[in-house]
Amino acid sequence: MAESTTFYCLRCQNRFPVQYDPKEVKERSCPRCGSNSVRKETPAAAETQARSPSVKIG
Amino acid sequence: MMDAGRHPKVELLTDSEVEEISGFVGNFRARIRRKARYVDEKACTSCGECAKVCPVVVPDEYQQGLSSRRAIYLPFPQAVPSSYALNMSDCLGVRPIACGKCVEVCDKKCIDLDMEDRFLDIEIGTIVVATGLDVYDPRAQDEYGYTRFENVITSMEFERLICAGGPTGGHLIRPSDRKTPKRIGFVQCVGSRAPARAAPYCSNVCCMNTVKDTLLISEHDPDAVSHVFYTDMRAFGKGFEDLYRRSREAGVRYVRGLPGHVKQDPKTGDVRVTVENTLTGDLERYEVDLLVLSVGLVPKKNGGNKVKELLALSSTSDGFLLEAHPKLKPVDAPTRGVYFAGCVEAPKDVKDSVTQASAAAARAGALLAAGRVKIEAITAEIEREGCNFCGRCARVCPYHAITESDKKRGLYPVVIQAACAGCGTCAAECPNDTITMRHFTDLQLLGQVDAILEEKPMEKVVAFACNWCSYAGGDTCGTSRLQYPPSVRLIRTMCSGRVDEDFVWHAFEKGAPLVLVSGCHFSDCHYISAVTWTQQRVEKIWIQMEKLGMRPERLQLDWISAAEGQKFARVMRQMDELLKQITPEEVEQSKKAVAEFLRQKREKLEKRKAKAAEGAGALAAAALEKS
Predict the structure, then answer these.
(1) Which residue ranges form the domains of chain B, and what is each CATH number?
(2) Which segments within B178-224 are labelled E, that is strand?
(3) CA-CA to B367 of 20 to 30 Å: which in B132, B580, B595, B604?
(4) Are B581 and A26 inside 8 Å of each other by CB?
(5) Nearest to B553 among A36, A44, A52 (CB)
């Protein structure tokens, strides 16, 4: 079942909600910069994101 | 259809379903379920005596439910074979046994109520998929009142009403009072070009179908008046514009705008339509006797997905099957030896369907006549040494081109060369590196990574680009004279699925500050579903990067199509921006972490290979002993 999950963009650091079903592999893109380098936000990912310098594009 | 039925070299298997398909081009094997029709089709003379005595009356699907049929019936007047069929679920209903009246009256004794489904195994060289389409169900867009008003019908229902073989013998009537309608309205784009509510695409045939219907109406009754409510008329084919002109000259009124309000008068049965004419900006009201919804075309629901699964095919985002190449191989499926004909690939009219079917038949015929298949040299090869029968290669192959392995029986996986399309996903996924991708070997690709990073690695972005989309997108970018920074260095692979985790780690070990993996959009993947494995692999690497204390931002992913030259340039500029944010200290730190990670990984790989070799030795010894 798809549920609303936060994803974040590895290019512009945008966080956005996505209807996510773990069984379904589908193309996703950042609604702000259009990048496909987006991933589900996990506690570990959020920690890394907080440590990483902010990269702002476009 | 009659010609096909009579042709000595064509065997028609009607009322049949494909249960299984195995094998590859030239050597397909199919298991067909021949459903019981309870009537011997060779003995039946279509006298129709059985239907006369059948007490079961059900709506006739062929006539869109506008008339009825019996449980034993002739599917439609020109059906091939021209034989009655018994629908057992209609016949029995809730009763446990059939009444048997049809059996009693059949002189030829061709009705057998005990007939069962039969299975047929056949060998096939090539396959043409022509499973057709469905029509949009307008109940979802009820503002036009299809479920509420009797005199609002679909274009398919109108087709049956005006057809000589239809329930009224071609006499156009309206359902509420069976009177001949004098004022007829047509609403275009019902279920098409509505991304939020229905299909986003244009169904291709509705405009000209309506034009044809309006001309038919004026031929049937010169006094009848037709109104067509449209967003824009698309008369693009040969002779279409002429037909459209004739329709307007015949007095058909075309109103640019879709109805905002539809209501049926309960007393007269007339339908009142309110529409904003977008050419004049006026709100106009029309009263018609019959309103026809010009419904769009949608991909086949029943059986469509089964065919897709059986033949390892992929579909576009709108659900129609994806061709191997939109320009160079428009009738070929990505699976070799499979071709498309008709609306299974996209909505199209009769002429286009016949053109595509002829092309598919010619492609299939040419392959069969040659008797052999010419394949690309870029295929995978599995080395037995080191293989531990994990079966991952067979699981990820989008073409089912790798045979299943079985450790107990000592069966190693084998790549069927004629079926392999050369995406390289198996080679990237093999945990023991026992698969060689010809022309795109690990050594060749790693060599390119080394060459890129040999000098000034901090100024370079290592970018893996798939041959068909991203790399071609780069070509489009170049031919369009679009500028992008020279820091990005492309490594071409046939598919992004070929990009092994080890390539990315190797680049980081060699001091790459940033790696980009790019491929086709999911709906454009030239290797069916290979791109999905790329995404999963990159996600796995991101997690491992975090564990090693690296920023996952240093591995970027992007899907760029061959037409997206501008996107290619934009992504490359973004890579250059990202590159500037990465410090030499960060790269040095990650080089050490990655080197240690790879050392451990290689140790584990050696152990696995040694264990696999031991297993292979034991298997060989057992085979020797057995022999």
Answers:
(1) 2-124 (no CATH), 134-297 (3.50.50.60), 299-370 (no CATH), 380-600 (no CATH)
(2) 183-190
(3) B132
(4) no
(5) A52
